[in-house]
Amino acid sequence: MNFQDIKRKVIADLLASNYSIEARQDVDEKNLLAVGKISPGELAQILKQCRGQEHSSSPHHKDKNVDMHIIITKSWYVKFHFYSGSTFISVHKENKGKVLK
Amino acid sequence: MKVFKADEKGKALCHRDGAVTTTFAYRDVPFRDGRGIAPKILVGVCDTCGDAIVIPAQSTPAISAARQRAEHSVEVNVPAFYLEVLDAAATRVLTGATTDFRKPLLVYYMDRYSRGAEKTSELTALHKAMSKHVLGVKTPNRRLSMKFTDAAHIRFEQIVSETKLSKTNLIKSLVAKIDEDIVKPEKPKHFDELVTIANVLYA
Question: What ipTM does the predicted assembly reach?
Fold first, then answer.
């Protein structure tokens, strides 16, 4: 998938609420989508304006066949992967290259 | 939107086990910082290790509500002088102190008052004395915003109710106490305890 396809898919999944949050036994309260401090609609608007140079991807550390996508745009740090027909996504604020976790 | 139900099966990448099947179930899920839990939310549980690994979109409103219950915001507008006193106290306790130490200082004194180590009856007088001191001094107002856990917020409300002071005046009274105990004396009171707290917080 090229960047435009990736962007289209993540935005469509957000707008359809076809997304999930990854957990590790607990809820990361700094994942702003998990705690409702940003809505999927607001996030979709932010992603609509992002550009290809703000996107990077690497293999997921638990499954090399799955791409982990990172978009850093306007102080937002958005990390997601597509799996089993859904988008798994986290959203953090980023400050001067440091993700606020 | 796909709405999940309990006992439904799914697939996800587990942080321990990689590609796994999941089963949706209601669980109490804690927040990572230890401040509260999201009770009985529907999550995808890893069939291999049993960890909650998937939070579906439908569970986020319940998580958001649980988080709001766990975080109580206290916001007050006070003359900048009060914050300067807090910062002055912080510099007496901590090398390289920052404004982050304002809340621990106030919480330390809230704790002392709520467990009876200090008398709440003195707070109104302390507030009056310091207000008189600030009266007529041209100082801008500053906002002090703090997030309290349930437990800390209960202590705060307890002192508000005992003293009948407003939240703003209670904060001012606590600052006046900190001024008396830490800023003014040659040797600050509770110095060792506060240094330990600072060292733990900023380790």
Answer: 0.90
Which tokens sit at B113?
Answer: 């008052």
**Phi and psi angles of residue B87, each rounded to the nearest 5 degrees, phi first:** -70, -35
Best residue in B9, B55, B67 for a mutation probing chain A (most A CBs within 10 Å): B55
* Helix, coil or strand: residue B9: strand
Nearest to B196 by CA among B114, B108, B109, B112: B108
Tokens linked to B59? 């569970």
Task: Report CA Rg, chain A.
Answer: 13
Residue range B70-106, pLDDT digits in tens = 778 889 999 999 999 999 999 998 877 788 899 999 9
Q: pTM of the predicted model, to two decimals?
A: 0.65
Query: Are the beta carbons of A87 and A10 closer than 8 angstroms?
Result: yes
User: By the 8 A CB rule, do B104 and B197 touch?
Assistant: yes
Neighboring chain A residues of B60 at a CB cutoff of 8 Å: 21, 33-36
Report in angstroms the alpha-carbon separations of B160 from B108, B114, B120, B169: 16, 10, 10, 9
Partners of A18 on chain B (C-beta within 8 Å) are 1-2, 57
DSSP for chain A, written as a single string: --HHHHHHHHHHHHHTT-EEEE-SSSB-TT-TTTTTSS-HHHHHHHHHT--GGGEEEEEETTEEEEEEEEEEETTEEEEEEEETTEEEEEEEEEETTEE--
Residues of chain B with Cβ-Cβ distance to A63 below 8 Å are: 13, 18-19
Sign for the pseudo-dihedral over CA of B50, B55, B59, B63: positive
